[in-house]
Structures are given as structure tokens and as C-alpha cells.
């Protein structure tokens, strides 16, 4: 069932667990995430970056595919289709295409402009029943061309944005997209606690969910994180399983080159990663 992310995140915040956002890239990715969520009776958010949206030929194609798949796979758990790190223009395109949730990443604008644009989108989303994520501070590293410096969010700016009525807030707390470097200092729980103090009940979002140690994930959830984004880890699992299949020569045996066979190990690997994350985030059985 395609829904806004609002209710599932409020339940997660109250129940002290987090809903995973898993970014999708194609049919196999989408199917793997949806089937795992259904099997584990977990709510789930399908993330679509602007780059992935283009790759899948456009937001309307993505939206149609996800809606049809939810129906044909009999997915009963709550599913949100969410634009990840959206530009101002991208947000409007996804609203038009029928997404149930969007992220406006205005973190690279001066705070006044971020506020102004977020405010406008709050009104549009409220009218359409779409959930809206905003970002303050920035997530380090690079994801699909979105580059962040990784500065921690200013808690007062977080309050300014939260007070506009967004559904959820992504605050930079030392998190990074992609693999974490060896010398990574870890999440800034000081920043997270200060943000939480200012924004009260607002569900918080942790980006860069790949490779964060379990104890830090659990602590972040205890401090108000209700949504955790994972992208790179599924890509790494997919690539690793596909490489092993090819290196073992299985693509050359029998009909192993058939894409339905060739892509199967990678698809199963995505399912395993999603399962592991849902168990860690505590969302299993919460649908
Ligand atoms: O927006 C998506 C994420 O923040 C994913 O980060 O690729 O490090 O898992 P990741
Ligand atoms: Zn992100």
C-alpha cells in the first residue's frame, strides 16, 4: 500500500525504532526491497535519487512501476515512494508523477532561501497529503552528484526549518555518504541531542546509513532518529554477488547468461542486506 511517510515515522519515533529508506535503481532492486519488507512485515521507504530517476527513464516510469508492483506482488505493508535529495524542480516533478513523499535538499542554499523554498513546499505537500523531508547542515561525501561538505547542523536552524511544518528533518551530524573512511570520528551525538532538544517530536533522519557501527545506529535511534537511509551497502552487496557468479563462470554454464539468472544472486544479496538493516533498525513486525 503506497502511503505518505508521516504515519510510519511517527509510529517509529514513538516506538523507538527506525524505518529504513532503501534507494532503488531498477526493477530488481525495487522487487527485492518490497518482497523483503512484506516478508518481515516492516514498513519501508523506497528512495529515488534524481540520478536514479533519470536512469529509470523518469519519475513517471518509476511511479508507475512501483504502484503496479505493489499491486501485483500483493504488498500489504506501508510503502512510501520518496524522492531522495531532491532539487526544488525535482520535487515538483515527483509530486506530479505521484510520489507519496519527497525530500527537498535545500542545504546548499543560504538558510533564508532554504526556509523560503521549504515553506512553499510544506504548503503544496500538505494539500496533497505528501510527506516532506528537509535538510539542515550537510551530509559529507557524494551521492549521485550531490556533494556535501559534512558540516554539522546548527540546532537553531533546524528549529527554524522544523517549525515550518515539515514531516521529518535530516540534520548533518558527521554522517557521510558512501563508505566511511578509517579515520572517521563517528556520529556527533552532541549535535544530535542539541537538535532533538530544539525540534522536540520531529522525526529525525540519518543519511549515510552504510557502514555505521551498530551501537551508533542504536544510540541515534534512542535520540530521535526514526528514518535511516541506506544506498551504497545494497550496491556493494549486489556487485559482490554478481562478481562471484561471473568469476565462478556460472554465466557461461547452461543458460547462466540469461539476465533473469545473471541478476538473481545480486537480487538475493540486496534482500539479505535489507533484512539485516530492518532487523538492526527494529522495524520488523511493525507494519
Ligand atoms: O540519501 C541516501 C543515503 O543517505 C544513503 O547513504 O549510500 O551511504 O548508504 P549511503
Ligand atoms: Zn543521503
Automatic annotation (TrEMBL):
Pfam families: F_bP_aldolase
Domain of life: Bacteria
Cofactor binding, per record: Binds 2 Zn(2+) ions per subunit. One is catalytic and the other provides a structural contribution.
Active site: 84 (proton donor)
Entry-linked InterPro entries: Aldolase_TIM, Class_II_FBP_aldolase, FBA_II, Fruc_bis_ald_class-2
PROSITE patterns named among the record's database cross-references: ALDOLASE_CLASS_II_2
Residues bound to Zn(2+) 2: 105, 135
Cofactor(s) for this UniProt protein: Zn(2+)
Keywords: Lyase, Metal-binding, Zinc
Top EC class, one word: lyase
Binding site for dihydroxyacetone phosphate: 178, 208-210, 229-232
GO biological process terms, semicolon-separated: fructose 1,6-bisphosphate metabolic process; glycolytic process
CDD domains recorded: TBP_aldolase_IIB
EC number: 4.1.2.13
Binding-site residues, Zn(2+) 1: 85, 177, 207
GO molecular function, one term: fructose-bisphosphate aldolase activity
PANTHER family on file: D-TAGATOSE-1,6-BISPHOSPHATE ALDOLASE, D-TAGATOSE-1,6-BISPHOSPHATE ALDOLASE SUBUNIT GATY-RELATED
Protein name per Swiss-Prot or TrEMBL: Fructose-bisphosphate aldolase
Organism: Hungatella hathewayi
Gene symbol of the encoding locus: fba
